[in-house]
Design brief:
The complex is a heterotrimer. Helices cover about 20% and strands about 40% of the residues of chain A. Chain A is of the alpha+beta class. Chain A has one domain: Monooxygenase component MmoB/DmpM (Phenol Hydroxylase P2 Protein), CATH 3.90.56. Chain B has a domain of about 280 residues: Orthogonal Bundle (Ribonucleotide Reductase, subunit A), CATH 1.10.620. Classes of the chains: A alpha+beta, B mainly alpha, C mainly alpha.
Amino acid sequence: MTATQSNVFLALQTNDETRPIIEAIEADNPHAVVHRYPAMVKIDAPGRLVLKRQTVEEITGVEWELQSFHVNLISLSGNIDETEDELVLAWRQ
Amino acid sequence: MTDKTTAAAAPKKLSLKAKYAQLTRGLGWETTYQPPDKVFPQTHFEGIKIHDWEKWEDPFRLTMDAYWKYQAEKEKKLYAIIDAFQQNNGHLNVSDGRYVNTVKLFLTGISPEEYSAHRMFAMLGRNFAGVGPQIAAQMQSIDELRHAQTQIHTISQYNKYFNGMHDFRHMHDRVWYLSVPKSYFEDAMTAGPFEGIVAISFSFEYVLTNLIFMPFMSAAAYNGDMATVTFGFSAQSDESRHMTLGIECIKFLLEQDPGNVPIIQRWIDKWFWRGYRLLTLVSMMMDFMVPKKVMSWKEAWDMYFVQNGGALFRDLERYGLRMPKYWEQTVVAADRLSCEAWNTFYNYAAAANFNPWCPTAEDMDWMSQKYPGTFDKYYRPRFEHYRELEKQGKRFYNTTLPMLCQTCQIPLVFSEPDDPTQTCYRESDYNGMKYHFCSDGCKDIFDHEPEKYVQAWLPVHQIYQGNCFKPGTDPTAKDFNPLAAVLEYYNFGPGDNMDYAGSPDETNWLKWKGLAKSGPLKMAS
Amino acid sequence: MSVEIKTAAIDPVRQTFSHVARRLGADKPASRYQEATFDLQSDCNFHYRPLWDPEHELYDKRRTAIRMNDWYAFKDPRQFYYGTYVLNRAKLQDTAENNFDFVERHGALASLPKGLARRIKAILLPLRHVEYGANLNNCYISAYGWGTAITAATTFAMMDRLGIAQYLSRIGLLIDGNTGESLAVAKDSWMNDPVWQPLRKLVEDNFVIKDWFELFVAQNLVLDGMLYPLVYGRFGGELSQAGGSVVAMLTEFMDTWYAEEVKWVDAFVKTAAAESQENKAQLSAWAREAAARTRDALAPLAKLIYLEEARAVLDDAGAQLQARLVKAGLTV
């Protein structure tokens, strides 16, 4: 861990489907900063950002396929690792 | 599970990763009846070495069933909105008639390139020799077709009510400044498959594409253009897959062989610069063309390239890559780029397929605030001079054709990196001819591959050579008007070009909105 | 008494794009298929010769021997553009998903007669490699063909063939309990078993056909035109009779898909043949040559499936193809 870590980011459309996703990201990434733009939410985080299926399901109370978040995804940055349980964005340095 | 006969009764659940691996397992073609070099003839000539195509990772592992399902969901949403937009005359909800000029720029400058990308990724999908990159490229190929088609369907409504985009692909192949995006994509497509993917997937999609879509779409949202926001963000949901292809391809190529590193660095240098020059059009869109502005070009460049691109290249340092050559020049020029570009279009409004205008007083104040070091000093006086001429009824149209850069094809309008008051000129000699460039970056690109860039179809040269007139035009006729003949070749009709003030678009807009004619004077006051 | 709703007149300046209007002969409302398809590909003022083919322009009509006055004469009878395509496939996919779910939940494949399961493994699973070959061939046409009417249709076909390869893989996974063992065995058989070698050679030979329209004929018209009736049509019927209606559920996608493929492929060939005597002669020669090669390549597979009836079945598949060729205007 270096003192100045690069940000990774995730940008999502603003709508009712992404509301719980954003909430889940905020819960699992206390270091993340959420910026709200017209029609778009951009979430920056130093070094690493994780989106967990389980957290979204806990918020909504229903089963959720992680792959479906692509429908509302606008952009991202960082190395990507996706499984059915979580999506991780990270820089390696 | 030892008893194979019961295996079918109790199958283990497959993870996403395992499912993708199994479904594509062994599908790659290792030909034996035909030599591999004949089946995949393009994988060697660029000097890139691949030892194991299986090492290519597709982090999203999208199988076709999931692809159809999710894409259909996106299309259902998108077309519902397009339908509503059309039924409700949604084009009347934009902030101002001037805004629609960004849509014209988009449909004539970007949508045809979505189709080019569709074709290019089909080429890559066939020419890469491994199943992973083949499938990733093929999915991008069909996605790009989607983008071209959804853009046309969305903008179709604007075309019915506004000028400048009615023959968008015809114009794309002919209009002077549209050769900038056209030559950019054709450059990538005519290169080998590895340079092509480094050019488009990495240098463009991963490093620069955020600068097109994020500001364009945020601006569309802010200016009440719900249709464009919707297709834009819907396209972006595919784009994140494409960006991932970009970063994965770079890592794959770098990891395969250390000899690949210098080749790739050179491609990144070239394609960063080429992409940056292309984005000149975006800079003026952000700073001048959207009536309600979201952020400045400089802010966007800082956020998406300097910060985010910087993070990316720090991550890639471990492979021996560095930031693209001349990136520092782009930071210095961020204070000037959009002004130099908009000034050019103001000058050549007679030959562009949209309606430029002199910035209003509020526009200029916004620029002063965003560019405190440069706007008032270098550019405000020029725009105020234009406005003065307009007041006298002498709107300035430049009728002298400009010299174009042999590489990026933009007129030589950019300033010296260390002096905003001097125009930057570079030149090279090749086979007894002199070639001209707008920058060190463009000159370097030419010098490395002169035999390619001497072929460029430069619109100004072509006009002077008489290649931009409709068949049957007689340039020796007594009343021959070259500009009129070129515009006829472009298939421009009334209102496609010239200033926004007094244009049919402005007249219609005011009528539809029930507004009084304000004209340039009031707008400018 | 009539009520007049007063609104400001907001009349469109035009009904459609100029290039579409030129094709329709007038400025009138156009379909989404037309606006999404017509003239989308650049056709002039190319900048650079391709490093990979300096003899040609980036897009070049001379990449095929077929000559057309208008390359947008080709009309997809399904009128697919991307949106209608994926919506249609999502429906088929939904049905397929339910079918696979049903078979999996009921362990239906486990109850198949042993011989039948073996036949499915031996006959259906290696075909995933043929499908992926068909994917690459349609990809080639999308890469080097001329005009959106062609490249859009072949791009949809390209993704369909990947989808079918993956459905075949899933049948294997249902049989082997997701171990993938059956797919490994099928690949080995595909690479080494004499039954498959002529077909594998045929696909590889098709890979190196340079003329994209010839490849269209060899793959989409001829190979598919014989393979599908041979395998999915007749064999599917036989499987159903032997208690394998389960298999029919798993190959339903392929049956529906093929019925649809025939329509647009025939329409395209017919359009090209109707253009000129030269086209007709060229297409006929290609089809004859490909039909002979393809029949030979399929013979061992026919024998594996139908034993002594193989010849008759092949004749029948050949006759079905002949009928299509004649209907499309070719001389056979």
